[in-house]
Amino acid sequence: MAIKTGGCLKKHFIECPIGKLDFFAGISADELKEFCRYCIPNAYAKRNALFYAGNNPLGLYFLCLGRVNIWRAGSLGRRQVVRVAKAPDIIGYRAFFSQEPYSATGEVVVESHICFLERAAFERTFGSSIGFFRWLTKYMAEKLREAEEKELKFILNTVEERLADFLLSAGRGEARRVAVLPQFRHELAAEIGTSPETVSRILASFAERNLIKILAKKQIVLLDPIRLERIARR
After folding, report:
1. What is the rounded average pLDDT of the residues 119-125?
2. Cα–Cα distance between 139 and 134 in angstroms, integer?
3. How far is CA 159 from CA 5, 53, 80, 142, 189, in A?
4. DSSP 173
């Protein structure tokens, strides 16, 4: 159940991570004022549902803090995470703009702060905004490009190659030798298009081959990034 916070975005918009989205760079001061007036800030606990597959969208969700899984039920009833939304982000925009029911369910992964803008308030605030629709065109094009790139990786690369590439891209610290994994294994599985069990098996294989060392707190030391690079690019 969502708990109204009374104004996380309204009173502290400049400090709020959602304000860093390009979305707000292209709107006018009056539009921003109206947005802050009509948005409804809420606090969500872990496992709270934002929306359910099949329901009609009543507005847009602005993820200010936290993380949300977008999942569908598979043929055997097992959940399949199709996207992991991390703050700052906008959630539910495809169903909202196409005016179709949600094709997946949105569930909060960790305690999150999320603002909701009802459809009537959105249309009143941004219905004739040139700046908004310029941003929307760019945003949707970027999301389409990301989806196409991910689909191409799924087609052309093996799971082992995709996981090696993910570890290299997530590398941090000295010479980018420490990769920090998502909090939950199924999030990583969704990112590279496989099952959590396969992720665990390949990580164990990498460790046995002295390519990585698995630490606590979801951290992995890249012992041999050169060999990982060869796996990712073969």
Report:
1. 91
2. 9
3. 42, 28, 17, 24, 10
4. T
Site of tokens 């997946």:
104
- Residues making up the chain, counted from first to last: 234
Calculate the average pLDDT of the chain.
81
Same domain membership, residue 188 and residue 146:
no
Q: Identify whether residues 119 and 170 lie together within a single domain.
A: no
Residue pLDDT, tens place only, 3-28? 444 444 445 555 677 777 777 777 77
> How is residue 230 written in tokens?
């060869």
Buried b (16+ CB within 10 A) or exposed e, 128-153: ebeebeebbeeeeeeeeeeeeeeeee
Same domain, 44 and 71: yes
Supply the DSSP string of 129-150, one letter for each residue: -HHHHHHHHHHHHHHHHHHHHH
Q: Would you tell me the crossing angle of helices 185-192 and 196-208 to the nearest 10 degrees?
A: 90
